[in-house]
Design brief:
It contains seven helices and twelve strands. The longest helix is centred in the middle third of the chain and has 34 residues, at 105-138. By secondary structure, it is an alpha+beta fold. Mean pLDDT is 82; it is low at 9-28. The protein folds into three domains: 32-41 and 238-337, Elongation Factor Tu (Ef-tu), domain 3 (Beta Barrel), CATH 2.40.30.170; 45-74 and 205-234, RNA polymerase II/Efflux pump adaptor protein, barrel-sandwich hybrid domain (OB fold (Dihydrolipoamide Acetyltransferase, E2P)), CATH 2.40.50; 81-201, no CATH class.
Length: 339
């Protein structure tokens, strides 16, 4: 009996091995497995101003939303500058209004009175010179000295000049400010307004804002540090988009097309696939990176493929190993199985 059972056991073992091998061949032909790592875009957030950091409002590992303030600079210097510019701008605005409104009636009346006073002084100087000249004539030059005549003539010339000056001043007051003066004052006001807008923009820039939903990877500066555009304060890992960077050998390259739906598996959630889509296929071959585990030799030439995933539950982390499974069409299955 034992000798009769041995051939039967051999036949059963061969049948079991053949069935297992056939099933494995069908599984390999049914889908294409690609191996790689999760790739997440990162953002280094830095202030555009050079100033002391006042506060950092998030810690490593925290989630941030788009528009959330994550850090602030010391704003005192900017606020003082802004207050000074606002005061200067208000004074300049009043100056512009004054020039536009022209001369007040009181200013015109004052200029008129000054002009009349200069005319009276001129008349007095003329009369005094006439009297001195008359005395000189009657006394045959003995009653008036030459110095007195010179002084009277000089006073007359000064009075005439004073009248001319007051007349021009009265005319200018009546005409009001020149258009060029008004334009210059308005330009100065516009300069101050632009300076105010710049300072207000810098005040907004003193608050560091998350550009989109992300997770804090690194906190690089602390309150008291001096920030600058060259020194990032935080490094963020964006929640979306996320990619899985995988590599495919040349014989399997023809099975992939941009836009194909795939399933992404990780060791952490082996039974919970994440939906993905092939987004990019490299046109240049390269050697397989050493950190990617494949079933072929590491030195084999492969092509990089990027698979974009929809990670709504935020399971994937930067650098996490992942397996991408691509379902093949029936004709592709037969081709891959060699039948």
């Amino acid at each position: 009996m034992r000798k009769a059972l041995i051939p039967l056991l051999v036949v059963v073992a061969v049948a079991v091995y053949a069935g297992w091998h056939y099933s494995q061949g069908d599984s390999a032909a049914y889908e294409l497995k690609l191996y790689g790592n999760v790739d997440i875009r990162q953002v280094s957030l830095a202030f555009t101003l050079s100033e002391r950091v006042e506060s950092v409002l998030v810690e490593e590992g925290e989630s941030v939303e788009a528009g959330q303030i994550v850090a602030r600079l010391d704003r005192q210097h900017l606020e003082l500058q802004l207050a000074r510019v606002k005061a200067s701008m208000e004074a300049q605005r009043q100056q512009v209004e004054k020039l536009k409104n022209g001369s007040r009636p009181e200013e015109i009346a004052q200029a008129q009175a000054q002009y009349q006073g200069a005319q009276a002084e001129l008349e007095l100087a003329q009369n005094q010179l006439k009297r001195l000249q008359e005395v000189k004539r009657l006394t045959d030059g003995q009653g008036v000295s030459a110095q007195d005549l010179d002084n009277a003539q000089a006073r007359l010339r000064a009075a005439r000049a004073q009248v001319d000056g007051r007349a021009e001043s009265l005319q200018l007051v009546r005409k009001g400010p020149r258009d060029e003066d008004i334009a210059a004052a308005q330009a100065q006001l516009a300069t101050l307004q632009a300076e105010q807008a710049l300072l207000e923009h810098q005040l907004r820039q003193s608050e560091l804002v998350a550009p989109m939903a992300a997770r804090v990877r690194a906190r690089l500066l602390e309150p008291g540090d001096i920030a600058s555009p060259q020194r990032p304060v935080l490094t963020l890992a964006l929640n979306d988009p996320k990619w899985v960077r995988v590599y495919v050998s040349e014989p399997d390259l023809g099975y992939l097309k941009p836009g194909m739906k795939v399933a992404v598996y990780t060791d952490t959630f082996p039974d919970q696939p994440i939906a993905g889509q092939i987004g990019y296929i490299s046109s240049v071959a390269e050697f397989t990176p050493k950190n990617v585990q494949t079933e072929s030799l590491r030195t084999a030439l492969v092509y990089e493929v990027r698979v974009r995933v929809t990670d709504s539950e935020n399971r994937l982390r930067l650098g996490m190993p992942a397996t991408v499974r691509v379902a093949l069409e029936p004709d592709q299955q037969r081709a891959r199985a060699g039948t």
